[in-house]
Specification:
491 residues; six-stranded mixed β-sheet; 10 helices; alpha/beta; binds copper (II) ion; single chain
């Protein structure tokens, strides 16, 4: 069937109008108390016809309250859109409904689904859909193969309740998924899920761009990285920060929260965890069995889970893939901001902080010969050489071998306007550590630099090394400078 977006819209309006007049909506009142326990209990009358409400993540359509199966019409439009994958970084996403993940579909067990897949005329590629909720060849993939500017329709009965992934299955399948073509469909059991206060939709995916993490501009898909399963980004809901800061999920203390969590992959499995919360209930792998009191639940690529918990105390819960380099270096972080009354019984916060001396510590004496005498630099060249070793041991893991830093996480030390503007400030940072937001070469960073135990001589050496490398301004930081300044600049 030829598809033009305007025609599709008018059809939706027509169906809505018919529903409104009752022409295609049958006996909603008469059958309300009738229970259909199994697939074999066929109603006497034609089932109700319902146009499915689809939602953009992180929102979820309202729970299904009807007692009977219905004929549900789902209309999903594929579009290929350029959006930000990270600040200043664009990517051409292929989407189900304009978002990554695609729109959330909510139906009920034994519903008859009439599924319309429309591929926008501006698309460059054919697409289809494989719903894991479908019993039938390819999950509907062949039946829904749709060229740009076309619409296909296929029908299925939702036999098994659960939370299921759907995805595009057009070759090369991995690439279509890596470009964002996945989402979730919930098939509610008869009687529905127990009521909760908040429901959200979160889905992980791995992305492969030619440029490094954070490299600006329109980034093409990198097939080589995809084949090696080395993603540049691992994300919840399709972009860095999609669910943090102002976009964070919200709840109030005392509320029960249900997360519908999917993993589109295409390659990684997710160790899904909420920092600061225990999942009271998990429906592992999206089935209907329940595990209680879960810390981390494994979500396979092409799989899902439902996680539920009551939020007891205010604060920000951090949702992560507990393979934590993905979280802190590749973007896999979401946030749930909980507001409300403190509950000191549940969490009292820090109640004491004091000096700790292990038992008998003050009776011990340091063996005199143990501490090697540190080398002392006599000139600039020696200082730079000694500083190189200090850098390799203490700084390189975050700021990298060439001082280039890691975009979005650790600021560069190379050609750093922040360092070159103020040597005293730099001494203070190394001596005392740094917390909070700073701007380096136009980029904002908000990570923590720990206070590292370095002598004044080591601080002088490492800073002199940094200032004399990678396009920085040169000069010498002396031990005297460090001793003088570190006491005046206190963080
Ligand atoms: Cu596709």
């Amino acid at each position: 069937m030829k598809y033009s977006p305007i025609k599709g819209l008018s059809r939706t309006l027509l169906a809505a109008a018919l529903l409104g007049t009752g022409i295609i909506s049958c006996n909603t009142n008469q059958n309300q108390n009738v229970k259909y326990a199994t697939i074999n209990d066929v109603p006497d009358k034609e089932p109700e016809v319902i146009e499915a409400v689809l939602t953009t993540p992180p929102m979820v359509p309202p729970p299904i309250t009807r007692k009977n199966p219905a004929k549900v019409i789902v209309r999903l439009e594929v579009t290929e859109v350029v959006k930000e994958i990270a600040e200043g970084v664009n990517y051409t996403f292929w989407t189900f409904g304009g978002s990554v993940p695609g729109k959330f579909i909510r139906i009920r067990q034994n519903d008859d689904v009439e599924f319309h897949l429309m591929n926008h005329p501006d698309s460059k590629n054919p697409h289809n859909i494989d719903l894991h909720a479908v019993t039938g060849p390819g999950g509907g993939a062949n039946a829904s193969f749709t060229a740009p500017g076309h619409e296909t329709v296929f029908n299925f009965k939702a036999l098994n309740p659960g939370l299921y992934v759907y995805h595009c299955a057009t070759a090369p399948v991995g690439m279509h998924i890596a470009n964002g073509m996945y989402g979730l469909i919930l098939v509610e059991p008869e009687g529905g899920l127990p009521p909760v206060d908040k429901e959200y939709y979160v889905m992980q995916g791995d992305f492969y761009t030619k440029g490094k993490f954070g490299e600006a501009g329109l980034q093409p898909f990198d097939m080589e990285k995809a084949l090696d399963e080395h993603p540049t980004y691992v994300l919840f809901n399709g972009s860095v920060g999609a669910l943090t800061g102002d976009n964070a999920l919200t709840a109030k203390t005392g509320e029960r929260v249900r997360l519908f969590v999917g993993n589109g992959g295409p390659s990684l499995i997710s160790s899904f965890h909420a920092i600061g919360e225990i999942f009271d209930k998990v429906y592992p792998e999206g089935g209907l069995n329940i595990n209680n009191n879960v810390q981390t639940t494994l979500i396979p690529a092409g799989g899902a889970a439902i996680a539920e918990f009551k939020v007891e105390v205010p604060g920000s819960l951090i949702l992560v893939d507990h393979s934590l380099f993905r979280t802190f270096n590749k973007g896999a972080m979401a946030m749930l901001k909980v507001e409300g009354q403190e509950n000191k019984e549940v969490f009292a916060g820090q109640t004491s902080s004091k000096i700790y001396l292990p038992e008998g510590a003050n009776a011990q004496e340091m063996p005199s010969a143990v501490k090697p005498v540190a080398s002392v630099a006599n000139n600039l060249e020696q200082r730079v050489n000694l500083g190189k070793a200090v850098y390799a041991q203490n700084c390189q893991a975050c700021h990298q071998a060439e001082g280039q830093g890691i975009a979005g996480a650790f600021p560069p030390l190379a050609k750093s306007d922040y360092l070159n503007a103020d040597v005293s400030r730099a001494i203070g940072v190394v001596a005392h550590g740094l917390e909070g937001q700073i701007k380096v070469n136009g980029q904002v960073y908000n990570s923590t630099m720990p206070k590292i135990k370095l002598s004044d001589e080591e601080i002088a050496n490492v800073l002199t090394y940094v200032y004399n490398n990678w396009g920085n301004k040169g000069g010498e930081v002396t031990t005297k400078d460090v001793a003088r300044i570190k006491t005046t600049i206190v963080h």
